[in-house]
């Protein structure tokens, strides 16, 4: 197993962990954490691919992508947390009611 | 600034910056001006495409694979035109919709709205001209964040919760898409769509799985059944112009990426069963969305559920494009699907604006409260009716032509089951449009007080509705434009390798 | 594009179409302007149609062709059968408009009413002049849409329910029609109507498919043509105001269905080809069943308008029957009945409206002695009723005579039995009201006439005029340019000697 | 082989910690674990020859995101019990099949992982990418660090839009709070003296580090986003210590700070069109322009991230009630 494969496999595992967390956790903050773990998985795969492609240096394009991805993720996370905060102000809870989902 | 690409990107984003920083009442007017300018740029690009064929543009002078290249064929040009046209009219509408709020030192929806609005326009433009997998991701992300912020603008628990659902779904979808992109990069080592198209031949499993991730993510963003649950409340609780644009354009943007990848890039990798599966989900969406629309009591929720149904039609395109066994792709299915996108954009825009007008005037949007609408808001009723016609796909709307094309493809490729779906969808949409129209015709137990509606709101939705009708009267030019760049090769002379 | 002669059909459509749009935007109280516009447009249309008739007989060709989408054109073309239909509709439009102005005096929403009314007539003209199937479908659906607001015009629960029934039937029919037409196109390419049929050359190979398509087409057109069992909407829709009933039963809607059947049999399939596919006998049988069934149901109705409605179901199928019998004489019978039935039935509905509007009479059982109070109305009613039965020299006789002759010629002797039975039944449901009105003594004291006339002249003149026309069309059937003359012209084209 | 062993241990620990993040019942501790995971990921990035990412992850991924989450978690504790009780009494089919949701979710997650594994194994093992292309063109980009050359020249358009995402998020947070600046956000009440003291020391230090990262980005790992994130962390610390930080900025200044970088890209892009294409800057002026753009990124990133932090944790604006009263009533 090469280093690339090891970390790519770790990406798959992290992806599953994050997804599971996103699905089963009801608190919004934890859902966001789940998404961030999924994000880490994606970044891991990209960096692993960059590592696989290294010549004098590792492939800089995935690196740039991951940097962008990290910034995007923190943006979305902050927005989600601000929303969660306001939902808490309005409704007193940080969960979403389930019955709205079906309608 | 000698290329329309530059203006398409520059104008809205510059407008977003300026309107965010500058105070003053001129802000909405500036937004309007810029949307009109964007329309002009889209027109420019479309005429270039029309005369010279597909256009390309290398940002920063860096050609693919290292740089990011832009690309526009007939499809992009039409969608850009649609986008700026709908947004221009919605901007007109917003002049009236937000006008009541005094622009003082305190926070107003109008002031927060304008820059977000222009950013949304910019990100739509960026998306429709992108030829780069990762650039598409960033554009989609811009779109999502702007969309969520605009939904939350309405305030109140419902809108906030709806925005939250939207954000969670879209965030997950983005990550799925990005995972797919990572795998594709791992497989092909490039991000440029044209280069991937050259390299992609099907075969190994990795690209197929990567595509599954990409399409799953985009399917969530396009509210494909069963990933649609986030859509109805998000679209229904946003401010009216936002609802209009979310349903008319933003959902279509995600679909556009699917279409682009499916048809232009990975035509050899996608299989007939996958196409049938996409069609089946689309069909389920048509039925489910329509049934929900029949059950809802609130006008905007009916319209929002109808979006789920109408998105379903778009996915019927995939099984129809190639037919069951044959390899040759079908222009009628392609054109029908894209034309449906356009026609629905105008019709749904008109419907949401009209619904917003009713909400504005009556203070609520219960269907039962729409009684006497023909007398209180006749122009809005007319726009409602016309947009309803377009939604059902009756002539002479653009959707009729779209349906005609899709039906032709269905029958010629001997996939009668999709014809049944289209027929059933037509009747179901007829039923929920009927609910609304008949409520409007029910006389006249008027509410005691009706908030006076600025004329510009009524006429904006009327013009949108009439456009969806106009698309049905003359389709020759749009169809000719659609043929530019199709059948598909994204490789443009001078750009790419 | 439009040839010099092409402006004529376009302007025939435009007279009502433009006026309709203008009327929508007229303020409600501007009655004079509206009435003037309406009547002016109706007169202009009659003049234009007259010019077209004259020109066509002289051998002029009028054709307007617009590129629509892909290989399809929108085609408006003047031919003999279209003139027959257009002549009927334009004359009746004028009379119905006058009648409606009188009938709706002081009722609300007249701008809306006359606006949609004009659109309906425009759609009817479009159906008449449609030169190919796609144009036909376009206007056929437009007619559906534009009629709905008229059916629900009163906004009562009953009217809305009727509107719902109407939409369910017609939208269902419209969807099926679309499927049928698209299907036919996939086999035979764009189909332009040609006398004697065009399919024998284009698509003779796929006889089973053609049979199924024929069934689909006739089934969907049969909704508007009220073929049993698809007639259910027609009696329900009689809750609409009398002018709307006139429109549904005589001027536009049911005629559009019957006319469509004429087009499909004679101008698409060709009656010989259709017969060779064994399609006409079943059609004749269905028509016969409808004739008898409609008459039987009419017998049992006390409500005058309901009785008339079932009478329409029955009478319309004379047209279908005539189409289904191979041979020029039967064709003449069918086509001339298209006109005659319209004129007679509109007379009857005008009279029913007069009775309801003036004396509040809705039922046959209330008619005793009413002729003394309203002699002109009842004279008109009598002429119409006797014409329906087929008494010479009123118009209905001419139709039945030709149908009978045609049946004999085609060795369909059983049709004579049907005709005889039907005439007896017609007599059975038309004689009692006529008898009661003239010879029974009134049960109640009728309120005295408001002025010198028994009711408003605007209600009286149209009824008298159409009654006179019914009489003259029969008595002067041999005169050049009479409906019979033109119908024979059509038959010559369809069955070249 | 020992090298490989390090990777295996690291990967295993990351997986375990990620799982613990999920399982940890107490939200606060879960967030701490999340930060720990981020730091371990930074190690992984270093192992994978991605020092830029390691810096960014430490500063943004683990650092700022972690602080954001921890701050969100602080107020959660009290509600946790009540919410858990509500969750126990869920409605619908979940009541009849209490474990079904979890089982289905677990199955779905595992399926995804399996499919991903298959795809990853299927990926070609040999290098396929743009390393060569970047190496060839780097000289023309104006900088000597490959990642920076991609970020700020070859794919500067993406970076611009990425700055746009960050900006939009800040605009969104402001819109959600119905405010234009953060002056109304809650100031910290329980400030510890040690924190104030720490802030005083850390701020100049942060400026120094940020400046170094910024400067070095042109030729070695480091760069504008990382520098901005370090500055943002310092600003957040100031905020926690009771200083005004970004909350002290007026509407205009805050707006200018947020917009600076995006607008700068726009201007550079605009000027580029006179030479050729949008965002074109080659060779001669390249390095200068990149440095200028990076400086704006440092400022904007710092302001934006700090603002996002203030916004995500803050109470809503003062006049929100007044605004809500004026919006159309809703009928749900």
Strand content of chain D: under 5%
Largest sheet of chain D: none
Distance between the termini of chain B: 25 Å
Task: Summarize the amount of helix of chain B as a percent range.
Answer: over 70%
SSE order of chain B in H/E notation?
HHEEHHHHHHHHHHHHHHHHH
Tell me about this structure.
Chain A has 103 residues and is an all-alpha fold. Chain A has helices at residues 3-24, 28-52, 60-91, 99-102. The model of chain A has no long low-confidence stretch (mean pLDDT 85). Chain B has one domain. A two-stranded antiparallel sheet of chain B has the order 1-2. The two termini of chain B are 25 Å apart. Chain C has 497 residues and is an all-alpha fold. Chain C has 21 helices and two strands. The chains are: A mainly alpha (103), B mainly alpha (497), C mainly alpha (497), D mainly alpha (332). Chains in contact: A-B, A-D, B-C, B-D. The interface between A and D is large, with 81 and 102 residues.
Can I get a quick summary?
The complex is a heterotetramer of chains A (103), B (497), C (497) and D (332). With 103 residues, chain A is mainly α. Helix content of chain A is 81%, strand content 0%.
Task: Describe the SSE topology.
The complex is a heterotetramer of chains A (103), B (497), C (497) and D (332).
Chain A: H1 3-24, H2 28-52, H3 60-91, H4 99-102
Helix pairs in contact in A: 1-2, 2-3
Chain B: H1 4-21, H2 27-52, E1 55-58, E2 69-72, H3 74-97, H4 109-129, H5 133-152, H6 156-188, H7 193-199, H8 205-221, H9 231-237, H10 240-265, H11 272-295, H12 299-322, H13 331-362, H14 373-376, H15 378-392, H16 398-412, H17 416-441, H18 455-473, H19 476-483
Antiparallel strand pairs in B: 1-2
Chain D: H1 2-23, H2 27-47, H3 51-74, H4 77-88, H5 93-96, H6 100-122, H7 131-141, H8 146-154, H9 156-176, H10 193-216, H11 224-240, H12 251-275, H13 283-313, H14 320-326
Helix pairs in contact in D: 1-2, 2-3, 3-11, 3-13, 7-8, 8-9, 9-12, 9-13, 10-11, 11-13, 12-13
Question: What brief labels describe this structure?
Answer:
heterotetramer, B: 497 residues, mainly alpha, two-stranded antiparallel sheet, 2 strands, 2% strand, D: 76% helix, disordered C terminus
């Amino acid at each position: 197993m090469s280093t690339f494969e090891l970390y790519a496999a770790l990406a798959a595992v992290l992806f599953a962990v994050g997804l599971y967390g996103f699905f089963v956790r009801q608190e919004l903050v934890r859902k966001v954490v789940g998404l961030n773990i999924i994000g880490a998985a994606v970044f891991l795969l990209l960096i692993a691919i960059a590592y696989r492609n290294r010549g004098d240096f590792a492939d800089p394009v995935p690196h740039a992508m991951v940097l962008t991805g990290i910034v995007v993720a923190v943006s979305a996370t902050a927005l989600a947390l601000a929303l969660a905060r306001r939902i808490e102000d309005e409704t007193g809870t940080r969960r979403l009611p389930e019955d709205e989902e079906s309608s | 600034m000698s290329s329309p690409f530059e203006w398409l990107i520059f104008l809205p984003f510059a407008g977003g910056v300026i309107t965010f920083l500058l105070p003053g009442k001129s802000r909405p007017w500036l937004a309007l001006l810029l949307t009109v300018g964007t329309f002009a740029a889209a027109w420019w690009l479309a005429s270039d495409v029309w005369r010279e064929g597909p256009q390309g543009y290398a940002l920063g002078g860096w050609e693919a694979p290292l740089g990011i290249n832009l690309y526009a064929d007939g499809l992009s040009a039409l969608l850009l035109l649609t986008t700026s046209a709908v947004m221009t009219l919605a901007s007109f509408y917003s002049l009236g919709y937000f006008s009541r709020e005094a622009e003082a030192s305190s926070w107003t929806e109008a002031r927060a709205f304008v820059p977000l609005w222009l950013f949304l326009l910019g990100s739509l433009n960026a998306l429709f001209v992108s030829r780069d997998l990762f650039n598409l991701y960033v554009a989609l992300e811009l779109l999502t964040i702007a969309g969520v912020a605009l939904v939350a603008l309405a305030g109140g628990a419902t809108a906030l919760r709806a925005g939250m659902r939207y954000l969670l779904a879209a965030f997950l979808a983005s990550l799925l898409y990005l995972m797919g992109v990572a795998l594709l990069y791992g497989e092909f080592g490039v991000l440029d769509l044209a280069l991937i198209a050259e390299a992609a031949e099907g075969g190994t499993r990795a690209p197929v799985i990567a595509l599954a991730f990409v399409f799953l993510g985009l399917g969530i963003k396009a509210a494909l059944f069963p990933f649609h649950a986030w859509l109805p409340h998000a679209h229904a609780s946003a401010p009216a112009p936002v609802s209009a644009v979310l349903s008319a354009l933003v959902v279509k943007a995600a679909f556009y990426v699917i279409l682009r990848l499916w048809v232009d890039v990975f035509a050899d990798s996608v299989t007939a069963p996958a196409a049938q599966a996409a069609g089946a989900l689309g069909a389920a969406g048509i039925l489910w969305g329509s049934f929900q629309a029949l059950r809802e009591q609130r006008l905007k929720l009916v319209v929002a559920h109808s979006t789920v149904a109408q998105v379903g039609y778009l996915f019927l395109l995939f099984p129809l494009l190639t037919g069951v066994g044959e390899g040759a792709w079908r222009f009628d299915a392609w054109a029908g699907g894209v034309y449906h996108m356009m026609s629905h954009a105008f019709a749904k825009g008109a419907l949401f604006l009209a619904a917003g007008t009713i909400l504005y005037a009556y203070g609520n949007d219960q269907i039962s409260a729409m009684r006497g609408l023909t007398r209180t808001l006749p122009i809005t009723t007319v726009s409602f009716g016309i947009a309803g016609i377009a939604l059902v796909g009756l002539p002479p709307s653009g959707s009729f032509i779209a349906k005609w094309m899709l039906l032709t493809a269905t029958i010629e490729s001997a996939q009668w089951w999709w014809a049944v779906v289209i027929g059933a969808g037509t009747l179901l949409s007829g039923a929920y449009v009927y609910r609304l129209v008949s409520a409007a015709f029910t006389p006249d137990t008027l509410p005691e007080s009706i908030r006076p509606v600025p004329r510009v709101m009524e006429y904006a939705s009327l013009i949108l509705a009439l456009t969806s009708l106009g698309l049905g009267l003359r389709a020759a030019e749009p169809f000719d434009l659609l043929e530019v760049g199709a059948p598909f090769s994204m490789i443009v002379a001078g750009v790419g390798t | 594009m439009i040839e010099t002669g092409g402006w004529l059909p376009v302007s025939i459509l435009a007279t009502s179409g433009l006026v309709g749009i203008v009327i929508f935007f007229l303020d409600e109280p501007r009655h004079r302007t509206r009435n003037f516009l309406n009547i002016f447009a109706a007169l202009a249309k009659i003049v234009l149609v007259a010019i077209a008739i004259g020109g066509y007989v002289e051998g002029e060709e009028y054709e307007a062709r617009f590129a629509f989408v892909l290989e399809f054109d929108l085609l408006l073309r003047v031919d003999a059968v279209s003139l027959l239909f257009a002549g009927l509709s334009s004359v009746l439009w004028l009379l119905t408009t006058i009648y409606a102005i009188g009938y709706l005096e002081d009722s609300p929403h007249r701008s809306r009413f006359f606006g949609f009314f004009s659109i309906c007539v425009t759609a009817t003209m479009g159906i008449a002049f449609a030169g190919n199937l796609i144009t036909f479908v376009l206007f056929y659906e437009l007619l559906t849409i534009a009629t709905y607001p008229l059916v629900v015009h009163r906004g009562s629960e009953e009217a809305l329910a009727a509107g719902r029934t109407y939409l369910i039937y017609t939208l269902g029919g419209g969807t099926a029609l679309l499927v049928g037409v698209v299907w036919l196109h996939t086999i035979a390419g764009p189909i332009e109507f040609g006398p004697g049929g065009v399919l024998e050359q284009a698509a003779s190979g796929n006889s089973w498919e053609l049979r199924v398509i024929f069934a689909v087409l006739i089934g969907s057109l049969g909704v508007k043509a009220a073929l049993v069992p698809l007639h259910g909407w027609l009696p329900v829709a009689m809750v609409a105001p009398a002018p709307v009933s006139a429109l549904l039963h005589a001027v536009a809607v049911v005629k559009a269905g019957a006319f469509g059947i004429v087009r499909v049999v004679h101008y698409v399939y060709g009656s010989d080809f259709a017969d060779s596919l064994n399609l006409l006998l079943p059609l004749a049988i269905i028509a016969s069943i409808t004739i008898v069934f409609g008459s039987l149901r009419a017998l049992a109705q006390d409500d005058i308008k309901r009785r008339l409605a079932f009478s329409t179901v029955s009478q319309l199928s004379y047209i279908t029957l005539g189409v289904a019998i191979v041979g020029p004489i039967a064709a003449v019978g069918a086509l001339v009945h298209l006109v005659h039935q319209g004129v007679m039935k509109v007379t009857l509905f005008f009279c029913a409206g007069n009775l309801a509007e003036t004396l509040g009479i809705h039922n046959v059982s209330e008619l005793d002695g009413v002729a003394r109070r309203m002699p002109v109305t009842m004279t008109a009613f009598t002429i119409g009723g006797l014409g329906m039965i087929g008494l010479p020299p009123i118009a209905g006789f001419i139709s039945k005579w030709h149908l009978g002759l045609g049946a004999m010629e085609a060795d369909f002797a059983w049709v004579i039995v049907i005709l005889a039975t039907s005439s007896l039944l017609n007599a059975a449901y038309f004689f009692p009201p006529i008898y009661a009105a003239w010879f029974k003594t009134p049960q109640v004291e009728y309120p005295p006439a408001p002025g010198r006339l028994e009711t408003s002249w605007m209600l009286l003149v149209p009824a008298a005029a159409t009654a006179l026309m019914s009489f003259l069309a029969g008595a002067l059937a041999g005169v050049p340019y009479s409906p019979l003359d033109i119908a024979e012209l059509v038959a010559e084209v369809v069955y070249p000697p | 082989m020992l090298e490989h062993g390090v990777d295996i241990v690291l990967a295993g620990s990351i997986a375990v910690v990620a799982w613990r993040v999920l399982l940890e019942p107490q939200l606060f501790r879960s967030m701490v674990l999340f930060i720990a995971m981020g730091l371990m990921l930074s190690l992984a990035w270093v192992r994978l020859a991605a020092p830029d990412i390691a810096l960014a992850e430490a500063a943004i991924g683990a650092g700022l995101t972690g602080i954001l989450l921890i701050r969100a978690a602080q107020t959660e504790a009290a509600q946790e019990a009540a919410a858990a009780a509500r969750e126990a009494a869920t409605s619908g089919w979940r009541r009849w099949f209490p474990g079904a949701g979890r089982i289905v979710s677990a199955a779905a997650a595992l399926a995804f992982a399996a499919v991903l594994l298959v795809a990853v194994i299927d990926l070609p093992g040999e290098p396929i990418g743009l390393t060569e292309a970047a190496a060839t063109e780097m000289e023309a980009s104006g900088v000597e660090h490959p990642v920076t050359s991609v970020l700020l020249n070859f794919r500067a358009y993406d970076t611009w839009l990425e700055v746009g995402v960050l900006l939009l998020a800040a605009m969104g947070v402001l819109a959600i709070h119905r405010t234009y600046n953060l002056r109304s956000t809650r100031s910290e009440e329980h400030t510890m003296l040690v924190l104030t003291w720490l802030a005083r020391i850390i701020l100049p230090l942060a400026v120094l580090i940020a400046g170094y990262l910024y400067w070095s980005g042109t030729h070695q790992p480091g760069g504008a986003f990382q520098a901005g994130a370090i500055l943002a962390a310092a600003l957040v610390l100031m905020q926690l210590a009771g200083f005004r930080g970004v909350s002290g900025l007026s509407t205009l200044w805050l707006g200018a700070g947020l917009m600076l970088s995006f607008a700068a890209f726009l201007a550079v892009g605009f000027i580029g069109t006179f030479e050729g294409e949008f965002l074109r800057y080659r060779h001669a002026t390249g390095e200068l322009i990149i440095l200028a753009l990076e400086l704006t990124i440092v400022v904007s990133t710092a302001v934006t991230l700090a603002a996002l932090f203030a916004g995500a944790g803050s109470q809503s604006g003062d006049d929100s009630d007044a605004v809500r009263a004026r919006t159309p009533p809703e009928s749900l």
